[in-house]
Q: What sequence folds into this?
């Protein structure tokens, strides 16, 4: 259910006006932008009315995404099946300071000042930050199997900036379980493994770029803050971030990783000119999202990302990555076995002897069993 | 596209570690760009910046890696201790817990960094005099017991930031240059009895190498 009353964003009684999403399409004329926004808005409203989820997801991928904040709140809630009537938010006990993550959350929320648009006054900002802390802690209380990570606050703040706290709580709760759950495990192991998919795809997509990045030894950590915050920690423009959220909410949870590949491909010629060492490459790559001189063409990159996801379907890619992990694990175990065999000769000899004896006891028992049957057969029929 | 500030005699990699919110990123920006940002964001993963200083007429380029403070990131960030010749272990003088956790950070270094890494304990936010929770003498005594150098800094008002980096880089330089003298003496077959034996190596020596792989 979408509640129209919740469209205005009210903090301390003051509504924050939502801005139209910036268009990145090829025609830059203002009139065309307005026409395009109106045209797309009509399509989005129609799809909402008809509850056509497929059409909505398709609209997320074309230029401008869900175009206005009013519309995207409605569509996000619809796509995530968020029910505003659910009172979980009010029901949870309110002593947020007792949560183990409280200190870390406060530290990160306090350092989120840069995320607020200049139009937000200080009083409003503080109110937002208080609400943000409360939402995060309540979600963690509500999901004891999920763990807070620095950067989760950036994702949550993005939602809170365009909707009321009730909607934000339900939507973040749903998205956390559907799209962010691997990043919220107890350790970062799964996250690290998922980031390796970047290289899995680039290797097939562009061998030259793959070789160069591998040779630089830059690894995947440059993309960590891109992927786990859906780029909200690294992009400067809130409209760009919201437009990416349109895509990520509507599609598979691997899409931020595909987007990372699309960005690397987009920057290929620049990357090949960077000194081929880890430090230089790390520095160049981490600076890409907020490069003022060469802003990323978001709509174009969304299309590239989609193309990649068609060429390398996410579920197949996950299967391939899992296979690679299993092989690596087996190789590791084999090596461990070898090491153990080399290192503890006496113990391994004992183990082999035991295995041999155990195997032979069964063999001898089997031979004995067969002998008894043969003897019985001979005795019964030939005597 | 590449940075060209590459006339240096030594390149030393230094890591900034310590609990979340102690001011590691601002120490880095104060030293490398003379900036303090009240609006600085949490560090997710690792970031780095460089600055060159002069010691004994040698140009030393410091490559300083700033790491995320939250515990769950340690498994990822500890890979970046590899090759580091120095570590600034930072705590917040106004938050006792960040000082208590110094032991755990030392263990991280013991487990993942080179055993000869030069470590400096840094009590940051010394401008917060009225909120001080860690007495200077206590921290200094702890540093002495653990063979660490010690300094208190304020990235906000610049106090001792320059001194902290100068001190640790100079210390690394002394060790590295002694090592080189020792090697030279060994080459000359002479006995280096008066030289402290060290095994620390510079991250990169003065070859000003450029692996320019540009293919376009």
A:
């Amino acid at each position: 259910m979408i509640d129209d009353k919740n469209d205005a964003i009210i903090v301390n009684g003051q509504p924050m006006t939502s801005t139209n999403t910036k268009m990145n399409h090829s025609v830059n004329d203002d009139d065309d932008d307005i026409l395009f926004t109106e045209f797309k808005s009509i399509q989005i409203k129609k799809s909402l009315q008809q509850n056509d989820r497929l059409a909505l997801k398709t609209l997320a991928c074309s230029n401008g995404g869900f175009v206005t904040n009013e519309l995207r709140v409605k569509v996000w809630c619809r796509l995530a099946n968020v029910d505003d009537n659910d009172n979980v938010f009010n029901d949870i006990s309110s002593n947020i300071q007792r949560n183990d993550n409280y200190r870390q959350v406060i530290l990160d929320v306090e350092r989120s000042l840069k995320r607020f648009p200049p139009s937000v006054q200080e009083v409003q900002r503080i109110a937002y930050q208080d609400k943000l802390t409360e939402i995060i802690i309540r979600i963690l209380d509500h999901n004891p199997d999920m763990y807070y990570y620095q950067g989760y606050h950036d994702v949550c703040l993005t939602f809170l900036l365009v909707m009321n706290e009730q909607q934000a709580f339900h939507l973040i709760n749903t998205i956390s379980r559907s799209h962010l759950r691997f990043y919220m495990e107890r350790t970062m192991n799964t996250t690290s493994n998922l980031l390796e998919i970047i290289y899995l795809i680039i290797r097939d997509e562009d061998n030259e770029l793959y070789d160069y990045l591998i040779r630089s030894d830059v690894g995947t950590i440059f993309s960590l803050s891109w992927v786990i915050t859906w780029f909200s920690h690294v992009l400067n423009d809130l409209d760009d971030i919201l437009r990416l959220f349109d895509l990520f909410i509507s599609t598979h949870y691997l899409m931020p990783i595909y987007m990372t590949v699309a960005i690397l491909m987009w920057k290929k010629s620049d990357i090949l000119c960077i000194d081929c060492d880890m430090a230089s490459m790390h520095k160049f790559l981490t600076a890409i999202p907020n490069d003022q001189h060469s802003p990323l063409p978001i709509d174009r990159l969304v299309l590239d990302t989609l193309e990649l996801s068609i060429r390398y379907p996410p579920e197949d890619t996950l299967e391939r990555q899992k296979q690679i992990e299993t092989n690596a694990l087996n190789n590791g175990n084999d090596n461990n076995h070898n090491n153990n065999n080399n290192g503890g000769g006496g113990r391994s000899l004992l183990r082999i002897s035991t295995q041999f004896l155990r195997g032979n006891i069964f063999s001898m028992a089997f031979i004995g069993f067969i002998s008894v049957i043969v003897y019985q057969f001979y005795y019964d029929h030939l005597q | 596209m590449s940075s060209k500030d590459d006339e240096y005699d030594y390149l030393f990699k230094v890591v900034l570690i310590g609990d979340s919110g102690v001011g590691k990123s601002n120490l880095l920006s104060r030293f490398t760009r003379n900036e303090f940002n009240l609006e600085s964001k949490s560090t997710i993963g690792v970031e780095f910046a460089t600055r060159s200083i002069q010691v004994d007429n040698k140009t030393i380029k410091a490559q300083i890696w700033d790491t995320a403070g939250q515990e769950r990131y340690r498994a990822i960030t500890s890979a970046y201790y590899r090759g580091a010749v120095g570590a600034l272990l930072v705590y917040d003088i106004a938050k006792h817990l960040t000082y208590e956790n110094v032991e755990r950070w030392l263990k991280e270094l013991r487990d993942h960094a080179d055993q000869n890494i030069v470590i400096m304990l840094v009590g940051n936010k010394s401008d917060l005099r009225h909120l001080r929770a860690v007495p200077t003498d206590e921290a200094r005594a702890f540093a002495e017991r653990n063979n660490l150098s010690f300094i208190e800094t304020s990235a906000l008002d610049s106090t001792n930031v320059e001194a902290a980096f100068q001190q640790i880089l100079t210390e690394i330089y002394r060790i590295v240059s002694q090592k080189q003298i020792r090697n030279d003496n060994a080459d000359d077959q002479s006995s280096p009895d008066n030289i402290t034996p060290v095994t620390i190596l510079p991250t990169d020596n003065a070859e000003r190498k450029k692996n320019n792989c540009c293919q376009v």
User: Anything to note?
Assistant: The mean pLDDT of chain B is 87.
